[in-house]
């Protein structure tokens, strides 16, 4: 079967959190305004990424919270726009004011071990809200709580929020919430690689950050040279709209055996694009189910299963009937694999 065993939903644990703090760049940074592109302007939401790290002998005598906090400050000296704040300019376009104000950081301890999340952790994670931080809703906000950022309060929050939770086994959990206006998946990965390099003693990122958002701006006046159907307005049918209220999510694991079976079927194709590997028991989206105001999203990422086999894990969120059909079709292809 390709479906991974669900996480234990009965897991209950307590978390002790310190007061949130702002981590500022380790060195003085320029105070300036940086323009965001027309493409950035469309992504007015936030993304939650969570990473589970097992205990490692190399961490003996080291506090992961302290190491990450210091590495984050050093990295922000190079990625200083992340320590700034979003501002709204003419024509409701966003820009970044590089204030050096810092990113939100929360230190926490949980009385749970990584093993209690299962042999191969995968979403949906039990008690996920205990591992992330909720800002109280700002006055006038239409939702009860804000997971790091409110969708209606996007300008007054930090570009990044990073809770680090120590586990009882010596491992830790890093939850990262980033503003999609500022980042996409590739850029946040590059930033986190830089944090990892700093944590290992580097004095500068191996790949220096470059800000050239103006390359993605439309001409003035605009000139249409190609039709991008990705941006077409789609009229949703009533059936489709109602199906989004009845969603199901599952995690599917594809190792070498499953991929070989799929490749033998002419109507399936999976490419596996040398994704960068993170040394985490799990590193990917914290939630699969859509949050208020967001459409459901599906992902795929490198993963090692409980037998140590390298493969791909695909968390998917689909309308319930579509999920049932997808599982049936996948089972007919993979059989006992």
From TrEMBL:
Pfam families: Transferase (PF02458). It comes from the Eukaryota. Keywords: Transferase. One of its GO terms (molecular function) is transferase activity. InterPro entries: CAT-like_dom_sf, Plant_acyltransferase. Belongs to the plant acyltransferase family. This is Benzyl alcohol O-benzoyltransferase.
């Amino acid at each position: 079967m390709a479906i991974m065993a669900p996480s234990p939903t009965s897991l209950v644990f307590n978390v002790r959190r310190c007061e949130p703090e702002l981590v500022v760049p380790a060195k003085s940074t320029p105070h300036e305004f940086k323009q965001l592109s027309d493409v950035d302007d469309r992504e007015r939401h936030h993304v939650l990424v969570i990473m589970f790290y097992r205990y490692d002998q190399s961490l003996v005598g080291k506090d992961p919270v302290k190491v990450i906090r210091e590495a984050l400050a050093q990295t922000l000296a190079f990625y200083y726009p992340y320590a700034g704040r979003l501002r709204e300019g003419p024509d409701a376009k966003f820009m970044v004011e590089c204030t050096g104000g810092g990113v939100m950081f929360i230190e926490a301890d949980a009385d749970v071990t990584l093993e209690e999340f299962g042999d191969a952790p995968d979403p949906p994670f039990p008690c996920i809200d205990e591992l992330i931080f909720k800002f109280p809703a700002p006055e006038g906000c239409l939702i009860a709580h804000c997971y790091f950022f409110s969708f209606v309060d996007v300008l007054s929050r930090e570009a990044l929020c990073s809770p680090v939770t120590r586990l009882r086994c010596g491992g830790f959990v890093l939850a990262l919430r980033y503003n999609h206006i500022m980042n996409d998946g590739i850029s946040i990965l590059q930033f986190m690689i830089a944090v990892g390099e700093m944590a290992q003693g580097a004095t500068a990122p191996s790949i220096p950050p470059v800000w050239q958002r103006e390359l993605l701006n439309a001409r003035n006046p605009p000139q249409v040279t190609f039709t991008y159907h990705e941006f077409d307005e789609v009229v949703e049918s009533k059936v489709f709209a109602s199906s989004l209220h009845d969603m199901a999510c599952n995690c599917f694991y594809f190792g070498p055996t499953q991929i070989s079976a799929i490749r033998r079927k002419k109507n399936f194709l999976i490419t596996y694009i040398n994704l960068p590997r993170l040394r985490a028991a799990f590193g990917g989206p914290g939630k699969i189910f859509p949050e208020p105001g967001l459409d459901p999203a599906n992902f795929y990422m490198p993963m090692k299963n409980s037998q140590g086999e390298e493969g791909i894990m695909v968390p998917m969120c689909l309308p319930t009937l579509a999920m049932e059909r997808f599982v049936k079709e996948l089972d007919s292809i993979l059989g006992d694999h």
